Amino acid sequence: MEGRPQIRKAIVIGAGIGGIAASVRLAVKGYAVDVFESNAYPGGKLSEFGNQGFRFDAGPSLFTMPQYVDELFELAGKDPRDYFNYQKLDMICRYFYEDGTRISAWADPLAFANEIASRTTDSAESVRRFMQKSEEIYRITHHVFLERSLHKLNTYLRADTLRSVLEFPKIDPFRTMNGAVEDFFSDSKTRRFFNRYATYNGSDPYRAPATLNVIPHLEQHYGAWFPEGGMFAITRSLVQLAEEMGVRFHYNTPVKQVLLGGNQVKGVQTEEGDFFAEVVVSNMDVWFVYQKLLKGIPPPKRTLRQERSSSALIFYWGIGRTFDELDLHNIFFSEDYREEFRYIWDQQSICADPTVYVNISSKYEKSDAPEGCENWFVMINVPANKGQDWDRLIQEAREHIIQKLSRNLGTDIGALIRTENILDPRSIESLTSSYQGALYGTSSNSRFAAFLRHPNFSGAVKGLFFTGGSVHPGGGIPLALLSARIAVENVG
Q1: How do the domains of the chain map onto residue ranges?
Q2: Fewer CB within a 10 Å sphere, N or C end of the chain?
Q3: Helix or strand or coil: residue 484?
Q4: Would you say 237 and 231 are in contact if contact means Cβ atoms under 8 Å apart?
Q5: Sign of CA dihedral 187, 190, 194, 199
Q6: CB 195 within 8 Å of CB 210
Q7: How far is CA 239 from CA 47, 53, 79, 247, 486, in A?
Q8: Coil, strand, or helix at residue 1?
Q9: Residue 42 class from Cβ within 10 Å (0-12 exposed, 13-18 middle, 19+ buried)?
């Protein structure tokens, strides 16, 4: 009598979006999957909380490239619309400048170019040429840098990769983002507008390579979207899918150690006991994996010593009135953008006039705030945590932010704040195991940064894989989902 076939087991460390996506992909491959999460909730940075009738998405607030979420449901043979729905934004973001200029970033390319031309001294044609360059960089790079491992020889033996290598100079790797932006635009407002995209992966536009000017294409071409139920709906729907596929989530259960047998992964150790599997996928920041979970495995020093990305200081404010001039996404620009980044990267501090991002999900999801109120997610870019006096910096930044918003909106914002929660680099690190509170792992301030990110697999331990924002291809929801795809494609 033949025995039953042995079920292959896999463990995922961390229920961030990359870990959840990896669990779905592993289940599709036939693995029995257990996910261990130290928090009481899933999502990592992509979580939510409430305060006195206001609901807030705790982390990522911009949703682009929804096809990578849909892909997971389709892999499982499900209709994504049975789980998760979203609507495209006609206007991606509203921009505010201190001289009273306001720019609406329309999703329609022609309307967007004309808007820039009507509000600045730059022409619609210059915008179109810049966006064509952005699209060209995407065409050359996406299938190499985003969708495949940079650490496997077969990636470089493919015909499309070889074609990309021949076009390498076209991706503009030898000058900075700002250097390229200045070649296209003369108006400071337009330059700030396009330099801002460096913050999408926690970098400095005055240092990061112009290859990152691919990011505007991702936003304009694929659009920006609002998930019904807010950003946490992405987490909620994928957890539901994973559980329907048999994935087991263990909350309040931090992993203490990755168990090894020689150079082969054996499972993980938790306070609940040891759990065994032939595959372990870690969604934890790779820095902490080497420093805390892997015993006897030398860390890749070159990788772990890389400059960290920037972090964030976020105020979650329940605001006691509504503002018709604000939309879902709003940016209030610093007058001296270069100085703002100099403070972040050179002084490891916060300037007195930071650029302020305000996200208001209640514009689309009315239940996120009491009637006549709005839920404001107010964020500035700040350095990673290196022991700064954050209590002082937070107090000063709060005053400057309130002054800036009050000045631009013509009302005393401080008097309207009904509820307040704060997230800073220290709490980002403690809640999400992100080293130094860096939002995107390592920065992309070097032209070689994409190649120096940690691979999605371990070269020293068989059966150990990595996903999430601290490894290839990088941070943010789309790239975290792609990291799960690349990692699990390497699993047998």
Answers
A1: 109-221
A2: N
A3: helix
A4: no
A5: positive
A6: no
A7: 12, 25, 15, 9, 20
A8: coil
A9: buried
Q: Is 273 helix (H, G, I), strand (E, B) or coil?
A: strand
Do 368 and 54 contact (CB within 8 A), yes or no? yes
Alpha-carbon distance of 142 to 130, in angstroms, equals: 18
How many residues are there in the chain?
A: 492
* Number of Cβ within a 10 Å radius of residue 298: 8
Residue holding tokens 């619309």? 81
Residue 157 has pLDDT above 60, yes or no: no
Q: Using alpha carbons, select from 379, 362, 380 the residue that is nearest to residue 371.
A: 362
pLDDT in tens, 351-371: 999 999 999 999 999 999 999
Residue 9 host element (H or E)? strand 9-13
∠ CA 263-264-267, rounded to 5°: 130
What does the block give as tokens for 178? 């700002």
Query: 318-322, 376-380, 438-442, 444-448: which has the minimum mean pLDDT?
Result: 444-448
The residues pairing with 222 across neighbouring beta strands, listed in sequence order, are: none
Task: Of 452, 461, 453, 448, give the one whose Cα is nearest residue 479.
Answer: 453
Asked if residue 103 lies in contact with residue 189, where contact means CB atoms within 8 angstroms, the answer is: yes
pLDDT computed for residue 296 by the predictor = 87
With contact defined as beta carbons under 8 Å apart, do 384 and 308 qualify? yes
CA 365 to chain centroid, in Å, comes to: 22
Round to whole Å and give the CA distance between 229 and 48.
11
**Cα end-to-end distance, the chain, whole Å:** 28
What distance in Å separates the CA atoms of residue 123 and residue 143, rounded to the nearest whole number?
Answer: 32
H-only helix segments in 47-204: 67-75, 109-119, 124-141, 153-156, 159-166, 177-184, 188-195
Instruction: Give the 3-state secondary structure of residue 317.
Output: strand
Measured from the Cβ of residue 293, the count of other Cβ atoms closer than 10 Å reads 21
Mean pLDDT of the chain: 94
My answer on whether omega of the bond before 254 falls inside 30° of 0, hence cis, is: no
Q: At the topology level of CATH, where does 109-221 sit? A: Guanine Nucleotide Dissociation Inhibitor; domain 1 (1.10.405)
DSSP lists the bridge partners of residue 471 as 454
Return all residues near 454 (Cβ < 8 A) that are at least 6 apart.
Answer: 286, 300, 303, 466, 470, 471, 472
Strands (E), 245-351: 248-250, 255-261, 264-270, 273-276, 279-282, 311-319, 329-332
- Give the phi and the psi of residue 412 in degrees, each rounded to 5: -80, 100
